[in-house]
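Incident review: delayed structure delivery

Summary: a single-chain prediction request sat in the queue longer than the usual turnaround. Root cause was a stuck worker, restarted by the on-call engineer. No data loss occurred. The affected request and its eventual output are reproduced below so the record is complete for anyone auditing the incident later.

Affected input:
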Amino acid sequence: MKNECNIERCLKEVGYVLAPISGTSMLPLLKQGKSLVWLTTIGEKRLEKGDVVLYKKNDGTLVLHRIIGKEKDTYLLLGDHRYNNPEYVKGQEIIAVAEKFWVNGKFIKRTALWYRIYLKIWTGNLKLRRILLAVLRFFNR
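Output delivered after worker restart:
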């Protein structure tokens, strides 16, 4: 994501930030230049499978990916546009969680019915995700 310093500063000072998407790892839901994500500090929230989180890599890069699993104190994260090689991230590296998304000119809350269906399909089976991504790539040539 771009503007890492501004994002971190806003999260620290205000507790939330509306941030632009950079890159393609969260396609098909979030698109660079078209989507925004409303991030809040984690505080006492319990992170769960399906949550979209912002974490900071050792090199300082901020990455927005989805939780696909948990092993002890480590979260398995994967961008929606990927189907293999999850990242293993410690809880203390996660700095924010997405509360809602700006997609196609409107906010989508995590509680929206179609989003919950998308979440079930997209996080339920990585083999199915691989097939769906291949179909999307075929039709978006």
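Verification: The chain has one domain: 4-139.
Action items: add queue-age alerting; document worker restart procedure.
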